[in-house]
Amino acid sequence: MTVAIAPILANPLACPVCQARVDVKSPHVVVAGTAVRVYCSADCLRMRDAGSIEPTPVALTTEPATRRAWWWLAGGIVVGTTCLAIAYGDLDEEEERIEVPPIAAFFPPSDPPSPPPPPLAADAVDPQDAADQALLAELAQDAWLHPLAGPARRMPANHNGAFGASRPGERPPECVSGHCGVDLGNVWGEPVHAAHGGVVDFVHRGPNEERGGIFVKISHRGGKLFTWYFHLAAVPRWIQPGTKVTAGQMIGLLGDTGIKHSAPHLHFAISVRPSTRATERYLDPEPLIAIWPLWIPNENRQSGRPSVAEEPGLPVRAPARRKPKPAVPDVVADPATTPAAIEPAAAP
Questions:
Q1: Res. 97: pLDDT tops 70
Q2: Which of 22, 85, 309, 331, by CA, is between 20 and 30 Å from 162?
Q3: Cβ–Cβ under 8 Å, residues 282 and 181
Q4: Which helix (H) or strand (E) holds 195?
Q5: How many CB atoms lie within 10 A of CB 243?
Q6: What average pLDDT does this structure show over 241-265?
Q7: What's the angle, vertex CA 337, arms to CA 333 and CA 343, rounded to 5?
Q8: In whole angstroms, what is the distance from residue 62 CA to residue 221 CA?
C-alpha cells in the first residue's frame, strides 16, 4: 500500500483554489495525510473535490521564517521541560536513597538476620504495670522536689506508713492493702511544698475526718498526673482551683486533720490518669521521694533553693543490707604433721 504525501502550499494563509486570503478560523478545512488545507468558501472546497485544481507544490525550505521560528521555540520548550523533569526525578530518587537507605545495608549478605525472639506469654507482662514503671522512671529524672524541706530527707518511718500498708475500708486494687500514699514527717505546722509546677485542681478546707482532713490536689502535665497533700493544718487563701504553682512553693502546713490513731504527718500521694475516660490510678511515690532533690529554705523561710547534695533515702520496703561474710583463712597442710593433728577451721 502506497501513501501519497500531499505537497506543502506556498502560502498557508491563502486559499488553494482562488489564492484569496483565508481566515484561520475558516470552517472549510480538509486533512489529507499530513497536509491540512484551509479554503475560503464552500465553492472553492467543491472545486477542489471536483479535481479542477491542484495545489502547487513547493520545497520545504520555502516555509515562512516566522513559522520556522515558532517551531524551533516550541521544540526547545518541549526538550527543556523534559530535561528538567528528568533532573528533578533523579534528585527525588537521590533524596529518597539518602533518607531511606535499603534494608540490606543493615544486614550484610554474609550475616543472615537473627531469628526473632519468641513471643512472651499473655500473662508474662502486665501492660499497666509496664506503663507505670516507665512513668516512674521518667519522673525520677524530671525536675521534682521532695514535698518536705531539708536538710534531712524524710521517708516513711515504718511499714505502716509505706505505700500499700493495711487500711480499713474498700480501697483501689493498686494500693495493695489500702494505703494509697506515704506518710512523711511529724512536726505540726511545718511548711509543705509543691513537688512540681502545675495547677491547683482541688482544695478542701472544711471538716473531712473520714477522707484525709484538709488537703490540696495539684494537676501536672495537662491533667494527666496529680499530687495529693493530706492532713494539712491550714492552706493559704491564694491556693484556689485554677491557681498556678511552681515547684517549691508552700501550699500548706503539716497537720493532723483527718487523723485518728497517729501523730501529725503529711500523707503524700501520686496518681495518674492518661485520659478523661481512663480510671485514675495511684503510684508508689516512695522510690521517687528517695532521690528527688530537697528544698533548702533560707533563714527566714520566705524562699529557698533546691539541693541535690543530700544522700538518697532508703525505702522501708527495700531488702535489708546483709553484712559481708568474714573471710575464712586458708589452712595449709604441713607434711610434717598428721591429719589428726590438724583442727578444722571454725565456721563463719
A1: no
A2: 309
A3: yes
A4: none
A5: 16
A6: 94
A7: 65
A8: 82
Nearest to 148 by CA among 295, 328, 317: 295
Cell numbers at residue 248, please?
A: 517549691
Residue 47: strand, helix, or coil: helix
Within 10 A of 214 (CB to CB), how many other CB atoms are there? 22
pLDDT for position 16:
80
CB count, 10 Å around CB of 163? 26
Burial of 60 by CB count in 10 Å (0-12 exposed, 13-18 middle, 19+ buried)?
exposed
Domain hosting 230: range is 127-307
In the chain, how many domains are there? 1
Run of H or E including 46: helix 42-50
The total of other beta-carbon atoms located within 10 Å of residue 75's CB is: 10
Instruction: Please give the mean pLDDT across all residues of the chain.
Output: 76
pLDDT score of 103 more than 50: no
Domain of 187: which CATH number?
2.70.70.10
Per-residue exposure over 39-48, b if at least 16 CB sit within 10 Å of its own CB, e if not: bbeeebbebb
Is 245 within the bounds of a domain?
yes
Which ranges constitute the DSSP H helices of 170-276? none
Contact by Cβ (8 Å): 145, 196: yes
Whether 103 maps to a domain, the answer reads: no
Helix (H, G, I), strand (E, B) or coil at 305: strand
Residue 343 maps to a domain: no
Tell me how far CA of residue 155 lies from CA of 13, 35, 281, 292, 317, in angstroms. 103, 101, 22, 12, 11
* Range 155-170 average pLDDT: 92
* pLDDT over 90 (residue 229): yes
What DSSP designation does 173 have? G
Model confidence pLDDT, tens digit, residues 292-329: 999 998 887 778 899 999 999 998 875 444 444 455 45
Instruction: Tell whether 325 is covered by a domain.
Output: no
Whether pTM > 0.90 for this model: the answer is no
